């Protein structure tokens, strides 16, 4: 799966990513992106924020808390000086990658149609 082009994980999610336009959301606007960012390895909060670009610290914090609460990720606290915290997907969280990849494949095939339909619907009202 790691070598498959459809599952390649970018180091930085493109700021123009149209995920907000999808008719599907997984636990909110940012959760799918967090899952993709954590797919290959654990990451620190600042790494996640850099990779995701437009997310605020408050929203990312809440998304991570929700994911930990739901068993999709774990928070790893390292007793170091300075303190270090990383987030890692659980097996349950990793199982959502297949769902996200299916939605990404669908969107590659149909996003233009979806956006055209929304545009014509907006102008028809």
Description:
The longest helix is centred in the last third of the chain and has 29 residues, at 96-124. The chain has a three-stranded antiparallel beta sheet. The protein is built from five helices and three strands. It has 125 residues and is mainly alpha-helical.
Taking all residues together, what is the mean pLDDT? Answer: 81
Number of strands: 3
Count, helices: 5
Quote the beta fraction: 5-15%
**Helix-strand pattern:** HEHHEEHH
Outline the low-pLDDT stretches: 1-12
The largest sheet, given as strand count, sense and whether it forms a barrel, is: 3 strands, antiparallel
Major beta sheet, strand line-up: 1-3-2
Distance between the termini: 44 Å
Helix percent reads 40-55%
**What global shape is seen?**
elongated
Please identify the structural class as seen in this structure: mainly alpha
Rg (CA only) = 16 Å
Summarize it:
With 125 residues, the protein is mainly alpha-helical.
Topology summary:
Layout: H1 31-38, E1 43-44, H2 45-52, H3 57-69, E2 73-78, E3 84-89, H4 91-94, H5 96-124
Antiparallel strand pairs: 1-3, 2-3
Characteristic key phrases:
disordered N terminus, 125 residues, mainly alpha
């Amino acid at each position: 799966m790691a070598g498959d082009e459809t599952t390649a994980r970018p180091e930085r999610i493109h700021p123009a990513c149209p995920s907000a336009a999808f008719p599907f959301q997984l636990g909110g606007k940012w959760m799918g992106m967090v899952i993709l960012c954590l797919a290959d390895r654990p990451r620190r909060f600042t790494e996640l924020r850099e990779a995701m670009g437009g997310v605020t610290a408050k929203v990312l914090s809440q998304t991570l808390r929700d994911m930990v609460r739901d068993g999709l990720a774990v928070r790893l606290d390292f007793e170091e000086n300075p303190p270090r915290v990383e987030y890692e997907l659980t097996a349950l969280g990793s199982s959502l990658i297949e769902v996200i990849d299916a939605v990404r494949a669908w969107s590659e095939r149909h996003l233009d149609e979806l956006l055209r339909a929304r545009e014509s619907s907006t102008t028809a009202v």
